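Worked example

This section walks through a single chain of length 144. The input is the sequence exactly as stored; nothing has been trimmed or padded.
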Amino acid sequence: MDIESGLSRLVHRVRLEDHGDLKGSLAAIDAKSEFPFPIERVLFEFGTQPEVTRGNHANLQSRFGFVCVAGHCTIDLDDGRTRESMLLAGPLDLVVVDKMVWTVMRDFSEDCVLLILSDRSYDPADSIRDYDDFLAWSRFGEEE
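Given that input, the structure is written out below as tokens.
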């Protein structure tokens, strides 16, 4: 497992291992080693047009993992101080995102299937959907 850190301690890129053999490939996401949190919810995004953006919000409590099980997309990440874009390409490329990171997914390939893993059930009150509000929240966190 190869881990690269970005956006301080809030985002980690993990290169999953291919455990396949002559029959085919197999990748596993082990919640104890690749994920710093338990998985409570699983989502799939598919059929997204290339010009569409998804996400466009930050979460107060929820943390996420993203992997393109087919195709590719770009994920833009912003902690209020630093911005970084990552290409998610293929089922061995996992990005783990902590809470309070503004996240935008874009540039979906036609065959993209984006697997999203979260540590919390959906709660609309957990999402910050206005970027200026997010910046205010992120600056408030720095003062503590």
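What to look for: The first strand starts at residue 2 and ends at 6.
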